[in-house]
């Protein structure tokens, strides 16, 4: 926010304080200064002069000889300017003057005639071209009225001003104005604040003679719409003082009507817009949402497509402005305009922000609205515009107004405890001093028993509780004055939670097994649930939608990590990576109710994905190794045929003590086709919260076995649909505590194996902790195992 110091002085007395000190003190009270800029760009020894006489040059057709009165003397100056007339007041560079372009003015002769100075153009004075009205762009700069002759041109044209650039935080939209920063300055310096006095001297007719009504169809997006009418408009360039102030504040002057609306926006912080009333069809204004087919050509001469989420200002036929962003070219003020409707409205900040982003159009108005403005400011700003139009003679104000304002913003009342202020800030302030500070900030305070009752005006939307008031007192008192005090308390040793340590262990284990960790977005497209073939009624389709998504591809919260893993693996495959092993630890989000009314439940999940010369047993081995390292053993793998993302015959649920740890298996060929994948992919998705419950990170150690182990191989022929886990359970159950390990090393179907059968081969390791086992002792365990397999599974030993 650019704040010209001269303009600031109109509302608060800062005499005796130089700009650097002012900037420093405001920074210490919370108003961060980005930079300080001197408007004077090197103009020196240039004064106001009056052209008394112009005669032709005797030796040059394109030159004239002027007599210029600069107060103490009259100078002869030769010039080639064609836009000057006798009686004009102009900037005169005297002999010895220096100009911003580096030029030094000397006494000279032009075609035989002496010249004692130079008449200056705006460019030669260092004024930016974009801030000059078109009539003054070419030729000598003609001053707008009579000024004391010989006066320094920097004072006349404001070239000796200083501008402070403040960084305004989003929670302080009230400071996006001269008056707002004047209030901060007055509070910081303990000076009086003098706000502009608004008074309209003459009003004629009634507004209902010119406007057939204003209708607000969406009060949520437009809490207040205030309007007035001004007739007999005379559109022309603004006075020099107005153009100068706008230029210093970084706004390009356009014409007197538009300039005044911009002036008031900068002064009070309320955006305004002036419509040419003759171009409003039906003389009625409607505030509504746009339809999907509507378009509008905005003031920047760009045709823009609207949608039904955008609020517009419309007449009886079409939109005439995008609410809070920019007006339409079809109702702009022009030189032919005779009657205007002044809009001073309050629009929903979020709606303006989304509209501005969707249209790719950010303006001074939208940047203010999107931060949230005080709706009680609308009438004051509109009346200020009418006052200024009347003062510069640009129109006649019509009596009355139209004010659509049903939900009036009300002041908040907060109790402040003085002892709490002193305890939190570690200072010793009396309650009277606290009230004085708050009152200087516009926070009306009075004693209420032992507390201070503070009435918070509606323009301070950031003040919501006692702590905010304490901060206000602290920053005006001066945080630099608060003595530094060491923290007092008991230091505790920090450590990671059990859940975090389990995550770290999992990461270490999987990286050690050769997998790469990945991280993907929590936001996904709803289309991913179609790509993984989830049925319409699946619980995983009950997702949380984002209110303000970046786009459809990031519009819902993920309920599973599988689509993200498939995206990563297939992307690697398309980049000719022939093998990829990856894992991700991340949250999935499950709504607590449908429709969603509260924050979703976040569930920590692990997803492992693999392709490239791997099969089901590779990923199962990784999962088993990880679970074993976490202290989880004897988990079961139960066939899963209803999870349609996976192959029905090659997928299992991992269970332990009636807990489902997750799902593991091969991805369904149809899903692979959806992702354009031609290799098999194996995925495991596990619930880390359940794994955390079952994990046991404690480790107990025992001495190495003293006695040797003995292995026996066994090959069985049994029915093809018998599960490996059933075979292994029988072996363990009949091992009589001598079975130390079971290793499956072969599964075979084909020649020499009957149809519907398979051959399964195991190596069983036997060991005793007390002695060396003999063949007879091993046989006493091994034979019952074989017998149990025959009886329970109808297995036959393969020769």
Fold and architecture overview:
- With 799 residues, the chain is an alpha+beta fold.
- The chain has 6 domains: 67 residues, Phenylalanyl-tRNA Synthetase, Chain B, domain 1; 113 residues, Nucleic acid-binding proteins (OB fold (Dihydrolipoamide Acetyltransferase, E2P)); 202 residues, 3-Layer(bba) Sandwich (Phenylalanyl-tRNA Synthetase, Chain B, domain 3), CATH 3.50.40.10; 70 residues, 2-Layer Sandwich (Phenylalanyl-tRNA Synthetase, Chain B, domain 1), CATH 3.30.56; 197 residues, Bira Bifunctional Protein, Domain 2 (BirA Bifunctional Protein, domain 2, 2-Layer Sandwich); 88 residues, Ferrodoxin-fold anticodon-binding domain (Alpha-Beta Plaits, 2-Layer Sandwich), CATH 3.30.70.
- It is 25% helix and 28% strand.
- It is built from 20 helices and 39 strands.
- The strands form 10 sheets. The protein has a 7-stranded mixed β-sheet with strand order 27-30-31-35-34-33-32, sandwiched between helices. Strands 11, 13, 14, 21, 22 and 23 form a 6-stranded mixed β-sheet that branches. Strands 5-4-3-6-9 form a 5-stranded antiparallel β-sheet.
- Strand 7 and strand 8 form a beta hairpin.
- Helix 6 crosses helix 9.
- It is elongated, with a radius of gyration of 41 Å.
- The termini are far apart.
CATH fold-level label of the largest domain: Phenylalanyl-tRNA Synthetase, Chain B, domain 3
Indicate the proportion of strand residues. Answer: 25-35%
* Low-pLDDT segments: none
Rg over alpha carbons: 41 Å
Question: Structural class given helices, strands, pairing?
Answer: alpha+beta
Shape: elongated
Q: Write down the domain tally.
A: 6
Span between termini: 91 Å
CATH second-level architecture of the largest domain: 3-Layer(bba) Sandwich
Mean pLDDT: 92
Give the strand order, joined by hyphens, for the main sheet.
27-30-31-35-34-33-32
Count the helices. How many? 20
- Would you identify the CATH H-level superfamily of the largest domain? Phenylalanyl-trna Synthetase, Chain B, domain 3
Report the top-level CATH class of the largest domain. Alpha Beta
The major pleated sheet works out as: 7 strands, mixed
Using DSSP, what is the number of strands? 39
Helix content: 25-40%
């Amino acid at each position: 926010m650019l704040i010209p110091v001269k303009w600031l002085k109109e509302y608060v007395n800062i005499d005796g304080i130089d700009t650097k000190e002012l900037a420093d003190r405001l920074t210490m009270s919370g108003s961060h200064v980005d930079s300080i800029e001197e408007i004077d760009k090197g103009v020196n020894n240039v004064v106001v002069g009056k052209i008394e006489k112009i005669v032709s040059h005797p030796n040059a057709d394109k030159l004239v000889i002027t007599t210029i009165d600069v107060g103490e003397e009259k100078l002869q100056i030769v010039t080639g300017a064609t836009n000057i007339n006798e009686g004009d007041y102009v900037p005169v560079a005297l002999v010895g003057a220096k100009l911003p372009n580096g030029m030094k003015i000397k006494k000279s002769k032009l075609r035989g005639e002496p010249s004692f100075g130079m008449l200056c153009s705006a460019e030669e004075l260092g004024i930016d071209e974009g801030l000059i009205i078109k009539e003054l762009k070419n030729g000598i700069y003609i001053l707008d009225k009579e000024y004391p002759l010989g006066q320094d041109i920097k004072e006349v044209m404001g070239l000796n001003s200083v501008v402070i650039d403040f960084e305004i935080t989003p929670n302080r939209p009230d400071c996006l104005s001269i008056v707002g920063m004047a209030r901060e300055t007055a509070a910081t310096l303990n000076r009086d604040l003098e706000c502009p006095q608004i008074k309209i001297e003459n009003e004629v007719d009634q507004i209902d003679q010119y406007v057939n009504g204003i209708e607000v169809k969406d009060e949520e997006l437009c809490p207040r719409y205030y309007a007035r009418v001004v007739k007999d408009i005379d559109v022309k360039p603004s006075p020099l003082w107005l153009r100068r102030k706008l230029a210093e504040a970084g706004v390009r002057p356009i014409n007197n009507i538009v300039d005044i609306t911009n002036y008031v926006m900068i002064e009070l912080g309320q955006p305004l817009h002036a419509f040419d009333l003759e171009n409003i069809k039906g003389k009625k204004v409607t505030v509504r949402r746009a339809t999907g087919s509507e378009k509008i050509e905005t003031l920047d001469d760009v045709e823009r497509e609207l949608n039904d989420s955008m609020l517009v200002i419309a007449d009886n036929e079409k939109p005439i402005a995008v609410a809070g962003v920019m007006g339409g070219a079809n109702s702009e003020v022009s030189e032919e305009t005779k009657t205007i409707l002044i809009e001073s409205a309050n629009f929903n900040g979020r709606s303006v922000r989304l509209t501005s982003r969707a249209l790719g159009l950010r303006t001074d108005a939208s940047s203010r609205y999107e931060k949230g403005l005080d709706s009680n400011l609308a009438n004051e700003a509109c009346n200020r515009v009418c006052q200024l139009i009347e003062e510069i003679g640009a129109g006649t104000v019509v009596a009355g107004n139209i004010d659509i304002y049903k939900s009036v913003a009300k002041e908040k009342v907060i109790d402040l405890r003085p002892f709490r202020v002193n305890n939190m800030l570690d200072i010793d302030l009396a309650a009277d001093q606290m009230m004085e500070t708050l009152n200087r900030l516009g926070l009306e305070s009075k004693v209420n028993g032992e507390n201070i009752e503070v009435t918070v005006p509606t323009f301070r939307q950031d003040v919501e509780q006692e702590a905010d008031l304490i901060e206000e007192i602290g920053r005006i008192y001066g945080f630099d004055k608060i003595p530094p005090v060491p923290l007092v308390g008991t230091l505790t040793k920090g450590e990671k939670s059990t859940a975090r340590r389990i995550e770290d262990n999992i990461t270490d284990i999987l990286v050690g097994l050769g997998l790469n960790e990945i991280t993907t977005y929590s936001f996904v497209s709803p289309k991913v649930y179609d790509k993984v073939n989830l049925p319409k009624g699946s619980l995983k389709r009950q997702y949380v939608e984002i209110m303000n998504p970046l786009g459809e591809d990031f519009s819902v919260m993920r309920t599973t990590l599988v689509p993200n893993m498939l995206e990563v693996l297939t992307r690697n495959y398309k980049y000719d990576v022939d093998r990829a092993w990856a894992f991700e630890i991340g949250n999935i989000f499950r709504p607590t109710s449908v429709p969603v009314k509260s924050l979703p439940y976040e569930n920590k999940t692990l997803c492992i994905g693999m392709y490239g010369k791997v099969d089901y047993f590779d990923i199962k081995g990784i999962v088993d190794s990880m679970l074993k390292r976490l202290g989880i053993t004897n988990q079961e793998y139960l066939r899963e045929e209803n999870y349609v993302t996976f192959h029905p015959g090659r997928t299992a649920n991992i269970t332990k003590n009636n807990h489902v740890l997750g799902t593991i298996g091969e991805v369904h060929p149809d899903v692979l086709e959806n992702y354009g994948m031609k290799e098999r992919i194996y995925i495991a998705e596990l619930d880390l919260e359940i794994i955390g419950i079952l994990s046991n990170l404690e480790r107990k150690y025992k001495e190495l076995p003293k006695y040797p182990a003995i292995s026996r191989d066994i090959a069985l022929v049994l029915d093809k649909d018998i599960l490996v886990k059933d075979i292994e359970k029988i072996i363990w159950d009949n091992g009589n505590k001598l079975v130390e390990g079971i290793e499956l090393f072969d599964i075979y179907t084909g020649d020499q194996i009957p149809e519907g059968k398979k051959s399964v081969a195991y190596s069983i390791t036997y060991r005793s902790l007390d002695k060396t086992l003999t063949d007879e002792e091993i046989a006493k365990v091994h034979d019952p195992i074989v017998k149990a397999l025959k009886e329970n599974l109808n297995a036959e030993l393969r020769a």
